[in-house]
Amino acid sequence: MPPITVFAARQIITMDPNRPRATHVAVREGRILAVGGADCADQWGDVVHDDSLKHAVLMPGFVEGHAHMMAGAMWNFAYAGYHDRIDPQGNLHKGMTDIDAVIARLSAQAATLPPGAPLLGWGFDPIFLKSERLNRHHLDRVAGDRPVAIMFSNFHLMCVNSAALSMAGYTRETNAEGVVKGPDGEPTGELQEMAAMFPVMRRVGMDFRGLSQTRAAMRTYADVCRLAGVTTVTDLFSTMEEADLETALSTTGEEDFHLRIVPALGAIGGSPDEIAAKAKRLAARGTDKLRLGAVKLMTDGSIQGWTARVKWPGYVGGQPNGIWNTSPETIFALCEVMQREGIQMHIHVNGDEASDVSLAALEAAARKHPWPEARHVLQHCQMMGADQYRRAAALGACTNIFANHVWYFGDQHVALTIGEDRARRMDAVRTALDEGVRVAIHSDAPVTPLAPLFTAWVAVNRQTMSGRTLGPDQRIGVDEALRLITLGAAYTLKMDSEIGSIEAGKRADFAVLGDDPTQVAPEALKDVPVLGTVFGGRLNLT
Amino acid sequence: MTRLPMTVVSGYLGAGKTTLINRLLTEDHDLRLMVLVNDFGAINIDAELLVSRTEDTIALQNGCVCCTMGADLYMALGDILDRSPRPDHLVVEASGVADPAAIAQAAIAEPDMSYAGIVTLVDGLNAPALLDDPLIGAQVAQQITVADLVLVTKTDGIAPDLAARLDAMKARSPRALDDAPLAPLLFGVTPLPQGPQPAPHPAYAAWRHESDTPVNRAWLGDRLAARPDGLYRLKGFVLTDDGGYEVQVVGAHVEARRAATDRTRLVALGPADRVSRDQIEAWWSA
Lengths: 542, 286
Description:
The structure holds two protein chains of two kinds. Chain A is α/β, with parallel strands linked by helices. Chain A folds into two domains: 78-205, Roll (Diaminopimelate Epimerase, Chain A, domain 1); 210-535, Metal-dependent hydrolases (TIM Barrel, Alpha-Beta Barrel), CATH 3.20.20. Helix content of chain A is 31%, strand content 21%. In chain A, strand 13 and strand 14 form a beta hairpin. Chain B has two domains: 4-186, P-loop containing nucleotide triphosphate hydrolases (Rossmann fold, 3-Layer(aba) Sandwich); 204-285, Hypothetical Protein Yjia, Chain: A,domain 2, CATH 3.30.1220. By secondary structure, chain B is α/β, with parallel strands linked by helices. Chain B has helices at residues 17-26, 73-81, 100-109, 127-132, 137-145, 160-168, 183-186, 217-225, 277-285; strands at 4-10, 33-37, 50-53, 57-60, 65-68, 89-93, 113-123, 149-153, 175-176, 204-211, 233-240, 243-250, 253-258, 264-271. In chain B, strand 12 and strand 13 form a beta hairpin. Chain A binds chain B through residues 168-170, 173-179, 193-196, 198-199, 201-202, 208-209, 237, 239, 241-242, 266, 268-271, 274, 309, 320-321, 323-330, 353, 357, and chain B through 12-13, 38-42, 55, 68-75, 77-78, 81, 95-97, 99, 101-106, 108-111, 135-136, 138-139, 255, 257.
C-alpha cells in the first residue's frame, strides 16, 4: 500500500461545512485521505505522523483566479514602484515614494550590472507621485554610460535616459506621436504607447515574450505563488503556441514544480471557430498541473486609463467613452461559438457597458445552445450593479471581482474617473453574494501583487490608500472572504471537485499560515504570515 | 539596410479587408510584400500560386509572404525587422476595432521603418448605420478620419448620403474601390531616384519633376501645406536655398528631413478621379 502521512497542525480551516475545523489531515498519493484528529486515518492502515506543520495553521491552497504569468519574470527587471512589494525570492522591496528614492534604488541596481548593459525597470506609477514627472535627466543621474528604460505600471508609458533615446534615434527632430517633448523642444525621455516605446524596447532587449513562455518564467511564477500560499493559479490571456505548449508541459511536469496553472487562451487571431478548435486541441493536452481548454475574451479597456466602456453619466472629467478591444458584434459571435462548442470563457469586463454587452451576449448564446454548467466567468466586474449581478445569477455565470482596485485606485476613481456615487459601489462583492452569484476575488497580478490574503483583506475592509472606507455597505465578513479565495475561485475554474477545501478525496494542496486568519482582527488579515504551501501532499515551505 | 515602408489596412468588420489583402498578395507588382493579418484562416490563395502554407505563414511564388499577427503586433514587427533580407513593403491588417493611427505611429517612430499610409475600407452599404451605432460608431468614425485614403467597398460608386457623411467627417480622398491595380497607388512610388518608371495605370495621375534651381525653403513649406487633396503620394528630394530635403507625403502625412541632394527630383501620384497631372503641375509651379 502507498504510504499514508498524517500532518498535525495547530488548526486546520477546512472550508468543508461537515467538519469546519480539524487538527490533522491524512494524505495518500497526493490526495486527502481523511481529516480530523490524530487517529483520522487509522482505519486505512499504518500511518506515518508528520509534525513539521504542528505550529502552523492550514487552509486549502489559495486559488488565484485572475493573474498573469509575467508576475514572476517581471522581477528580471528592477522594481521602481510606489508600494512595498515582495520579489519571488521573498525579499521585501520598499516602495519608492519620491523620485530621489527611485533614482537611488536604480543607481544601486545599475552598479551591479556589467559595463554598458541596459538597466530595465518596471512598476513606476506617476499617479502616486505629486512631484515633477520622471524625465531623462533623472535617469541620466542613474546612469549616463548605459541605456536605462523604466516601464510604468500601466504598461502604456515608459521613461528612458539619454543613452536609450539616442539608440532609438530620438532627437528634437523626431515627430512621432508619443515621443514627449519639453518646452526646450528636446525629448523629455517619456514615451507614450507601444509605437513610441517599441524602438527603445527592441534595442535594449526588453522582451515581454520571455516573461511568460519560458521555463524560467514559469518557475519564477511558482515561486511568487508559494510566497502567497497559492497552489492553483491562472494565466488569463495565454498566447500559447505549439512550442510554448511543449515548454509548459515539460516545466510543469517537473517533479518539484509545485503549482497548478490554468492558462486561458486569448481569443484573438482567428475566427471564433478557429479559436474554438485551438482551445480544444490544447484541452486534449492538459495534465493535472497544466489545465488547458478555457479561453479569455477582451472587451473594453481600463477605468483608470479612461478606456473602459462605461454607461451614462460617463467619466467625471468629461473624457470620451472608452474603447472596445473586441467589437460587441464579435463578442456575440465568440460567445455563441464557445457556448456551442462547450468551451468555458473568461470575459474581461471593467466598465458597466462592457459587462452589460457581455451579459447580453451570454444570454443570447444560452438561448441558442443551453448549457447550464458552462460557468463562464465575468472578470473584473468593477462597475456591475445589483441588476447586472441578478442577470449573472440567472445565467449561472460567475463573477471574479477585482477587489484590490478599492485599495490601489479607489481614491483615484472617486476623484478622477467615475466619481463618488459609482466608486462607492464598485467591486460590489456584498451585492454579488447577496444576489446569489458565484464569486471569486483577484489581484490581476502583476497589475497588483499576487496575495490572496491581501485581496481578502480589501474585500473585508474596503480601505483605500488614503485610509477612507470606500462603500462600507459592500464589505464582507472574513469567513466569506476566505471562502472566495479558496472554494469560490476553484468553482470559477471548474476545479471545485478537486481543490478549494480540505476534505477526503480532494488534492492535498494547502496554504501554510503562521496564524489563524479568523482569529486576528479583520484589519490585520493581510498581515497573517504565509509560510509556504503543501502541494499534492509535499511540503513546499518558504 | 533600407527602411521598411509600412501601410496599415483598416476598416470595421465586413468592410472587405481580407478581400483587399488577398488581392494585394496576388497582384502583379514585382514586390516582395510581407502582410501581417489578424484572421489568418480567411486568407485564400489559389494553390498554384503557393509555395507553402503552414499554421501561421503562407509563402507565395511571387515572393510575397503572409503571416498571422499572433497575440502581439510588436513582437511580429520586431521579428520582421530582424529578417534578412527585409521585405520590400509591409502591410499590416488592423483588427476591426483597432485604431490604425496607433499602429502606423510605429513606422514614424521606428528608424528602421517608414510611414506608407493608412488605408481605411468603408462598407458602402452598412457604413451609415455603423456610424450611428451608439456602441461602435465612434471607433468606426475614428478609423475613417485618420485614414490617408478611404476606399468604399461593396457598391458601385459612393451613395450620396454616405458621400455627404464622409465629406462632413473630412474623410481623405474617398473613392469607390474598383478593379484598377492598387499596388501602383499604395506601393508604387518607391523605386527612386533613378531607374525606368513603369507607365502608370490610367486610373492614376502621375507627375515627375526635376530641376537644378533651388527653391525657397519657406515656399516649400507653403507648397506642402497647400498640396491638392487628391495627391496621395509625393516623394523625392528638394534643393532649397537652405540645403537639401528629403520629402515624403502620404495622404495626410508629411515628412521633410534634411538630406544631401544636388537637385530637386520629385514623383507624385494620385487617383485620376481625384487629381490630374496638370493640377499637380499647376500646384508645384504656382
